[in-house]
Amino acid sequence: MTMETLPDRPAASKTLGWRQILPVVVIVCVYAAGTAAVLPVLPFHIREMGGSPLILGIIIASEALGHVDKWRSQSLMQAISMKPRKLSAVLS
After folding, report:
1. Per residue in 15-53, pLDDT tens?
2. What single-letter DSSP state applies at residue 92?
3. Are 21 and 11 in contact (CB under 8 A)?
4. CA distance 18 to 86
5. Around 40, how many Cα atoms within 13 Å sit in the side-chain half-sphere?
């Protein structure tokens, strides 16, 4: 049996620094600002192009469904990626 050295800090106490989190925060903020800028003027733009209120509802609903589908696909991908880890934990 070999003796392993213990790390200085436990894994649970490691924190992310602002330099690691900042790019994600900037990307999410830019995306949210873009969505917030487009949605209020979308009805005027669709009306100008000859669209009906039904078309506007379909466009806004499809945007919302895209967010739901994104959440479902992310959870599915996470479940798929966890299977090899679970299997290796059972086999070891």
Report:
1. 778 888 899 999 999 988 988 898 889 889 889 999 899
2. -
3. no
4. 31
5. 4
Per residue in 67-83, pLDDT (tens digit) is 777 777 777 777 777 66
pTM (predicted TM-score): 0.48
- The token pair that represents 76 in the structure block: 């599915």
DSSP letter for each residue of 3-68: PPPPPSS-GGG----HHHHHHHHHHHHHHHHHHHHHTTTHHHHHHHTT--HHHHHHHHHHHHHHHH
Tokens of 57: 């509802």
Alpha-carbon distance 45 to 55, whole Å? 12
